[in-house]
Design brief:
With 232 residues, the protein is an alpha/beta fold. The chain is built from 10 helices and 8 strands. A hairpin with a 7-residue loop joins strand 1 and strand 2. Pfam families: Carboxyl_trans (PF01039).
Length: 232
């Protein structure tokens, strides 16, 4: 993911924040078209890019910092879900994930999300998805927006058919293939309105710069209240 970021930003110059903590998410400051932006990106080379407690805390804090100083946010999504496990459950992974959700929903700066590859389940939602108010949602043709991966989904949806088949492996493989072709093809997300456009990866930098220029005059009026009630 760092290679992708360096290809997109001005002069490949990136200042990463808390580089050695929560390594499955990247938080960095850079310039796009001369404008300072905050970049939040999943790092698939660390824990496959899942969101855990540390990554959620790190990203939430960074999003709030960018919003406090009026820095636009660019989110690069490649997330297979939240990290499962007893330790994460006891540590309150859902509560900490809610902090990231709150931070994005509360941010009034321009927000652009770009789905590079995997975008599964609740983790996709909290990574500045269309459903929580991102201003511009883009995707590469390699995007996979779904509740879960094709293998897991096929094993659940067609469980009885697979169990009753003479050759379960062949039926499972066929159902996985059908699930991918019908529900996980590149333009299915655009058909459902989950993204605004599916773009050529070579156009990523120009589309992000154009999106930031379009959103430069964004104004948001928040409800009249003393302060929000952030998850703890």
């Amino acid at each position: 993911m760092r290679r992708v970021i360096r290809e997109v930003v001005d002069d490949g110059d990136v200042f990463e924040v808390h580089e050695r903590w929560g390594t499955n998410v990247i938080c960095a400051l850079a310039r796009l078209g001369g404008e300072v932006v905050g970049i939040v990106a999943n790092q698939p080379s660390a824990l496959a890019g899942v969101l855990d407690i540390a990554a959620s805390e790190k990203a939430a804090r960074f999003v709030q910092t960018c919003d406090a100083f009026n820095i636009p946010l660019v989110t690069l999504v490649d997330v297979p879900g939240f990290l499962p496990g007893v330790d994460q459950e006891h540590g309150g992974i859902i509560r900490h994930g809610a902090k990231l959700l709150y931070a994005y929903c509360n941010a009034t700066v321009p927000r652009i999300s770009l789905i590079l590859r995997k975008a599964y389940g609740g983790a996709y939602i909290v990574m500045d998805s269309r459903s929580i108010g991102t201003d511009l949602a883009l995707a590469w043709p390699s995007n996979e927006i779904a509740v879960m991966g094709a293998e897991g989904a096929a094993n659940i949806i067609f469980r009885r058919e697979i169990a009753a088949a003479e050759d379960p492996d062949a039926v499972r493989a066929q159902r996985i293939k059908e699930y991918r072709s019908e529900l996980m093809h590149p333009f299915y997300a655009a058909e459902r309105g989950l993204v605004d456009d599916v773009i050529d990866p070579a156009e990523t930098r120009s589309r992000l710069v154009a999106g930031l220029a379009m959103l430069r005059a964004k104004q948001v009026t928040l409800p009249s209240r003393k302060h929000g009630n952030q998850p703890q």
